[in-house]
Design a protein that fits this description.
Dna Topoisomerase Vi A Subunit, Chain: A, domain 2, 10% strand, 59% helix, globular, alpha/beta
Length: 135
């Protein structure tokens, strides 16, 4: 079991490294709330991080703000619960409609690696720490 956990930790760390790299390339990362953004900072991810659940704005308001900032690409990293999945779908459609490149690959990779063990991006840091302790 330890080998399986080691592989899982390495894969998650690889996804995080990819996210760190992407964040340095003028790509906007979209998360749900402030705690999600703080978690990304704890993991060493810089760049522009936009939160969708602050200030009482709708997903469409956020999509309009992102469009105005003219990013080269938007990485959607909302939670894996129902609201996050729906928000990801809605934002993706809205942004692609105005010809903004949307990346959900990292979101899909994390979702596949964590399964039902992790629902919120804000728990990614602690989830990874717990996995490391078990190895």
């Amino acid at each position: 079991m330890s080998t399986h956990l080691n592989e899982k930790v390495e894969k998650i760390e690889g996804v995080i490294a990819k996210l760190v790299d992407e964040s340095t390339k003028r790509k906007t990362i979209v998360v749900e709330g402030k705690k999600d953004a703080e978690t990304l900072r704890e993991l060493g991810i810089g760049g522009l991080v936009v939160t969708v659940k602050t200030g009482g704005k709708s997903f469409l308001d956020i999509a309009s703000e992102i469009e105005l900032s003219a990013p080269s690409e938007v990485i959607l990293l909302l939670d894996f619960d129902r609201r996050g999945r729906e928000g990801t779908k809605l934002l993706r459609q809205s942004l692609e409609r105005v010809k903004i490149k949307v990346n959900v690959d990292i979101w899909l990779e994390l979702k596949a690696l964590t399964g039902h063990e992790m629902q919120c991006i804000e728990s990614l840091f602690s989830y990874l720490q717990n996995l490391r302790k078990k190895t």
